[in-house]
Amino acid sequence: MVRLRPVDDWVTVREYRPEDIEAVLDIAVAAFQSVYTSRREALGDELFALFHSEWQADKRRAVREACEGAQSAMMCVAEADGRVAGFASYYARTERRIGEIGNNAVHPDFQGQGIGTRMYCFVCDRLKALGMECVTVETGGEESMAPARRAYAKAGFEAEFAMVRYYRKL
Ligand SMILES: CC(C)(COP(=O)(O)OP(=O)(O)OC[C@H]1O[C@@H](n2cnc3c(N)ncnc32)[C@H](O)[C@@H]1OP(=O)(O)O)[C@@H](O)C(=O)NCCC(=O)NCCS
User: Fold this and answer.
1) Burial class of residue 27, CB neighbours in 10 A (0-12, 13-18, 19+)
2) How far apart are CA 113 and CA 80, in angstroms?
3) Could you tell me the distance, in angstroms and rounded to a whole number, from the CA of residue 144 to the centre of ligand 1?
4) Pairing between strand 98-106 and 83-93?
5) Based on C-alpha coordinates, what's the Rg of the chain?
6) Ligand 1 pocket, 147 CB below 6 A?
């Protein structure tokens, strides 16, 4: 559904609460499905099985750990019309005043309407309030990550450099 109202009228970004956990984990798996489908096409079945056969469980574990505050992770969620529609984990590296955005996603039912950008702006505001001087985030260069790259750019991330990850079966 495409909405004509500004995103702030129907989306609230707030800190994560423990009761959000199941919604957040379900969003993680639903949103990253397209990323791993295209990764499978790029790598082929054999390499994909070696590297990513457990990706759903791995993603759920990583996101659960962030929800539980592992490595001092913080987490916010976006609520759209009362439903948890997205989440973003983030970190404040206080020694060097560097903030970092970690795992994040918007449920496919809600993508493309500005929620991701809104969450990234919330996280940047929080990190600034915590004394961070800059913020970084890592994403892929593949087509399935184009919405993430676009949303980071819209949220004000300017400088970037590309990295290439090689895969080889031994
Ligand atoms: C990345 C993600 C969180 C963004 O959330 P979102 O709510 O869809 O983001 P927004 O609506 O704020 O912005 C997405 C932008 O990408 C654009 N976009 C969508 N598909 C695109 C494509 N194939 N190529 C280029 N841009 C694309 C949208 O049009 C929008 O830009 P616009 O507002 O200028 O039109 C969401 O797409 C997602 O969960 N993706 C899968 C998981 C993921 O990649 N997470 C990030 C890990 S680093």
Assistant:
1) buried
2) 11
3) 9
4) antiparallel
5) 16
6) yes
pLDDT tens figures, 84-139: 999 999 999 999 999 999 999 999 999 999 999 999 999 999 999 999 999 999 99
Tell me, which fold does domain 7-154 have in CATH?
A: Aminopeptidase (3.40.630)
Buried b (16+ CB within 10 A) or exposed e, 92-107: beeeeeebbbbbbbbb
C-beta 151 within 6 A of ligand 1:
yes
Cβ neighbors of 77 (< 8 A, separation 6 or more) are 13, 14, 15, 16, 17, 20, 23, 24, 84, 86, 87
Distance from residue 166's CA to the centre of ligand 1 (Å): 25
Of ligand 1's atoms, which has the minimum distance to the CA of residue 138? Answer: 48
Which residue puts its alpha carbon closest to atom 21 of ligand 1?
A: 147
pTM above 0.85, yes or no: yes
Q: pLDDT tens, 51-61?
A: 999 999 999 99
Rounded Cα–Cα distance for residues 66 and 69 (Å):
5
Q: Which atom of ligand 1 is nearest to the CA of 117?
A: 12
